[in-house]
Amino acid sequence: MHNDIDLQETQEWREAFASLVAQAGPDRARFILDELNSQGNGLRLGWRPSAVTPYVNTIGVEQQPVFPGDLDLEQQLASLMRWNALAMVVRANRLTGELGGHIASYASAADLFEVGFNHFWRAGQQGDLVFMQAHSAPGVYARAYLEGRLTEHDLCFYRRELAAQKAVALGEMPAGTRGLPSYPHPYLMPDFWQFPTASMGLGPVQSIYQARFMRYLTDRGQHDCSGRHVWGIFGDGEMDEPESMSALTMAAREGLDNLIWVVNCNLQRLDGPVRGNGRIIDELETLFVGAGWRVIKLIWGSDWDGLFARDNTGVLTQALGQTVDGQMQTFAAKDGRFNRDNFFGQHPALAALVQGMTDAQIDGLKRGGHDIVKIYAAYAAALQTHSQPTVILAHTKKGYGMGQAGQGRMTTHSNKKLEDKDLLAFRDRFGLPLTDEQVLGLSFFKPATDSQLIHYLRERRERLGGSLPMRQTDAPVFQVPNISSHAQFALSPKGKEMSTTMAFVRQLGALLKDQMIGPKVVPIVADEARTFGMANLFKQVGIYSRVGQRYSPEDIGSVLSYREAKDGQILEEGISEAGAIASWIAAATSYAVHGQPMVPFYIFYSMFGFQRIGDLIWAAADQNPRGFLLGATSGRTTLAGEGLQHQDGTSLLWASTVPNCRSYDPAFAGELAVLIQHGLKEMLEQQKDVFYYITMTNANYPQPSFNLEHAESVVRGGYLLKAEGQGEPCTLLASGAVMTEALQAFDRLINNGRRVYLFSITSYCELARQSVGQEDSHLSALLAQSRGPIVAVSDWVRAVPDQIRAHLPASRSFEVLGTDGFGCSDTRAALRERFGVDAKAIVAAFNRID
């Protein structure tokens, strides 16, 4: 032993500890180790145990449960899945090389999927949630084909969705034939996929917050999610994404024992090894253990059990523990003779272990992620974990079974085409019942409906509640109360000064009190509730905490005291916009995931929304969410002294690119109230798949009364606020934060002898969308009420109002005033003067274009 100055004493300690385990059992042994560790810390020895355990399976042979399935049938089924997935990708790329696709990822993960499908993953809105590694989508389609959910025609249109539609329209394919998207996309297959995972890192963070949201629903009495689990099948390379790692400690802190990750450690990403000079499994073990997760290492298959049993000196474990991933990848790509000479041949004791084995037997030694029995043992152990999440680190070979065409090869990730000899070798490797002609023609194979294989396949899924994945949208309808019950103050403010943010918080508080929809409301903040004036809600509905409140808050006597509760309604996510939007996604898709509609309101600094977490919002849109995103302190000049990083002039532009997001920039409390009311009706009563992004300001100014006759126009994008004056006509379009500047300009222009038409534009995006291909659009109807040149002013980059330029009459000149460029710290007045969006600039614009 390295640095061992007394070998005899060391051996005595080892023997004493072995005796303790034998006589008192593992629990007593763990207790003694904890006590010694505590004593060592007290003596300040500067030592802590390594988080890395030996490079062997966590679940020993003696701990494995009896495998409950038919091993032979399941291996045959897995082989069929592999073939049909491969055929699907290769066929598509024989048609045209530009379609892409992935073979190697599913080849490495097939058994990880199949054990889940056959034994663990329960279906339905009372079942489990499974986040599936996106590159393995062909394998999931292959299983759905054998189950009868997809047809051979569907598989023929993998990655050719438009071609499938055209073929059906021309009568070349049966009605119902559909193309299959590249990856899991609920928007494209709304009855099939549940969660989009193609943008790596987003699946992991979403899975964590889905698991926590299930606890939230249960603890608040909204829906019983006890006994259900969230599973995630992810890649080892994907763990490098910041989102993958960002919430690990939250999962442990929340005690999410309903969360199980399976990380497919095939050691390889697109370009090469994930950790060529290191060991990704050791690295991930350290990371997850440190974060508070249970780690189950699934490294070696059953073929290795005998080798480990005969390894009396520990040389095999030592050699495996010293082999870096780059070399392990080479061993995966080479044959049995190479591995005999270069791995087992590095030490006489290793060579002796395989002395009686043929090269073919050495080549057939499986890694743990390819052994159905070992996978079952790891999954079963994960389900027995309490009070912490579990990660299974499954060692696999990328391109498993692809032989010289791809197994362990540097280029295997991008391999979409196989030579004839490689296809035949794949057939032989997995014992597929295919003729040479069928193989070379890439024929899909499906056993007869009454065959033992299909019967077994269906029987296993029936036991688990049906097919997976499957997305269901059955959810009860809720009636939305009349707007006057929660927003009368906004409709008739009588000139009271308030910001639209303040108006929103007041309306939210009233909605939370409603007996019908109040419990469905999910307020979400990322550590800014006090900034937005929401502190009064702390006492009203409480902040969700799985353990309640174990302390007396410093401000306990205050009406705004900080109150945590197990049935709390607010999700306070701390300084994590990614976490907050992931919670929002979980709540916004609850109608489909749990059959329980919830309405999330996530309020945030608008600059830290689309710009910071735009990819997660896009993933949300893919899931047809229903909820509200509220961009507070919006606009480039409204946040004044905060400066460049906080001043938002672009989020509405980002929002306009999301097809099912309706984005608005209201100027008045009444407009905001109407938009929330209309959104609630669309989501809860009409059950439309739509979500809203609404910007809000923090400036207090007099709020006019709102005439509900304009409600429909507000939703459609704008209305005529007022028209006054005599003389040369001009039209002013204004929105959001700079409406106050527009009102001042309105008065100045009248005093200058102009007739002014002032429109409150709540959404340039909605106006533009409704104008495409429409002669009688809402925009044209609005402008028909006015005359003269048009100036649009907003606190956003000019591209936001410019969305309507293409739909304006050529006879009317149009100029846009906006806030392009970087912001800086100063007063609102100074900033608006600098960007040219103040009243003076508006008047000057009309003088220029007259």
Could you give a quick summary of the protein structure above?
By secondary structure, the chain is an alpha/beta fold.
Question: What keyword list fits this structure?
Answer:
850 residues; six-stranded parallel β-sheet; 11% strand; single chain; alpha/beta; five-stranded parallel β-sheet
Structure overview:
The protein is an alpha/beta fold. It is built from 35 helices and 20 strands. It has a 6-stranded parallel beta sheet, with helices on both faces. It has a 5-stranded parallel beta sheet with strand order 1-2-3-5-4, sandwiched between helices. Helix 3 packs across helix 5 (137-147), helix 3 packs across helix 21 and helix 22 (484-491) runs antiparallel to helix 23 (500-513). The longest helix is centred in the first third of the chain and has 25 residues, at 71-95. The termini are far apart. The model has no long low-confidence stretch (mean pLDDT 93).
